[in-house]
Fold each of these.
Amino acid sequence: MIRIVGTVHVMPVKDEIRRIMTSSEGWHVAIELDPERLRAILDRRHMETSSVRSSSPLLLRVLYNIERRVGRSFHQDVGADMLSAYELARELHLNISLIDIPIHVTLRRLMSAPVTERLKLLIEGILMLLLPSGKKVQLEEFLSIKHIENLIETFKRRYPSIYEMLVVERDRYLFKRIIDLENKFGNVIAFIGALHAINLRKMFEDQGRDVSDVEQHRTFLTYIVR
């Protein structure tokens, strides 16, 4: 059996993660991180000098700073949700697997996207950084689970190749990793981004699995796959 927990990466969900994890004693924990990104999150200085070093592609630095800016609006660091899942799993002595594609592979794929898409995303990203932050309420609405479904379709339409690389390919990878862990360990609880959680639900249903909601709040969702 699989339990999927989808979170918005820059929203405060530590208490919810603790509650969910303590009710899943003995389950194998899967987290949407790879070893390099985990090291970066554990050591913010390493993050500044590796994943987003000054020599990194400008597009990567812009995207990272957009996410960091949004996180600051909620007094959250980038990746705080996945870090909470990792630390709580260790605290509860649960077995952990990091299930995301290695970040250097994702970045290499991103830089192979069509120049027109990368340029458009870069320009729009810079404009987002230059515009005023707006009110916190507006950001909370923007990051709600309901709105994420609309964002998926918009991003897919505007940047089809980048969407394929950053979302679809990672969906497939996460899906396979979670299935493999289920086959090996039985019960698996997976903490992933809400966007991937929404997409993976459709993939499980297409496979004929029984999917049932457990909880759905404004900034996180969780469901069971049997």
Amino acid sequence: MASTTPAPARTTYQGNDKLLLGIVLGVITFWLFAGTMGTVAPNILTDVNGPYSDPAAKTWTSPFVGVDAMNLAVSITALFSGMFIVVAGGLADRVGRVRISLIGNGLGILGSLMIVLATGPLALPLMLGGRAVQGLSAACIMPATMALVKTYWDGPGRQRAVSMWSIGSWGGSGLAAIFGGYVSTLVNWRWIFIASIVISVISILLLRGTPESKVAQTGEAFRFDLPGVLVFMVSMLALMIVLIFGAKIGWASPVTLGLAVVAVVGLAFLVRIERRAAKPFIDFALFANRTFTGATISNFLLNGTIGLLIVTQQLLQLAGGMKASDAGLLTLGYAVTIIAFIRLGEKLLQRFGPRQPMIWGSLIVMLAVLLLMPTNLLLGTYSWLAVAAYALFGLGLAFYATPSTDAALANLPANQAGAGAGIYKMASSLGSAIGAAISLALFTAFGTGGAAQFVGDVLINQGRTDNTALRQAAVVALAFNLVMVVIAIVSIMVTVPKGKEQAEPAK
């Protein structure tokens, strides 16, 4: 096959509101609809498995979908998005951004349909398969649609289009808990994914007829790093299974240890083969750039803190007895602050450089975690703390997002910018997947008591005591998120230059 070079700039077609609406609708199928799973997971479990066999312990004797499997379903979409976003972006450049956007929407329809049909003995394979396909859909849609925005709009029009794309992603993420909570409470959780199918169909209709956009081909052979992709995929899947099912299978069991070895050896082997590959799937040479490395690590970790939102939403429902709609409504401040202040991060970047707003944003996220940790309080008091914490969480991410992207990409050479952007976005998705998986694994493992009882020495529960284990388990999971934020701050302080000591963006 032929390699590619940038195609000549287009001279005729200009992006319009029809195309932009189709792009934004495609984007929200992941951020808004697929993003609801963490909030509505308790509703899905009770719907698929029926009434609890043990209402006090909130367990079933022989569930079609177990709690650990549900945790995997929550995390696997972001995992598959992260694993394949670089590959899908490269395919979009070669075969066409419009075509890959349409394929992504088609995959979104398939994934949502599988989830809608998840019932009875087929519930688990359909649920996991559908969530994985949703991840592939997101991997196709996100890079392809952003490339269309950059290709078919110029000047102020491009800035508006980028803002609309960002609102679709950040806004969708912020509203996911509210939307999912209300739909699952007022109608049924399956209608979330029925609505997603409708939105994908509308997106396809709006995108159809758009002139194709791709890069021009040359005579040089194109090399696809299949070994790198396969090794990475197997390693990440093994790691995810260990993280989620390790406590249930047994940390010292041959299965867990074997999968852990596969993950560690696989990732080590990946570094070796990627350094030798002519066209590596992941260009590890980029990590020689300290600023890129620090920004990417902190991006991975800050995205991982989405686990605090998922765990506390489930805590409010399982331990507090709140409806999904009421728990989701508490996250309104998260949506408002992340949308309202995302541009402020850009202004802070322009005035202070990336380092300061990245640290400030991380510190605000840390404060949000700390506010959520006193789970011993009565539900009314804790709910108000959650409202404040969710709003601060959105504010912190808004401060962090644009400066972090700039720190990662602004001083890379022009010929590394595309690869750097792919790795940075991969870190976002993988951070969300792994952070959510570990947070949920801790919450589930300690939710029956045991080792989590040590929290009682620090936080004495007020009110009900039948939910003590769940409340303490949430503290353990939140402590993990706190550690991630601390490491992110250290990473920023060590690697990102002070002030505006950034190299000029590559022209």
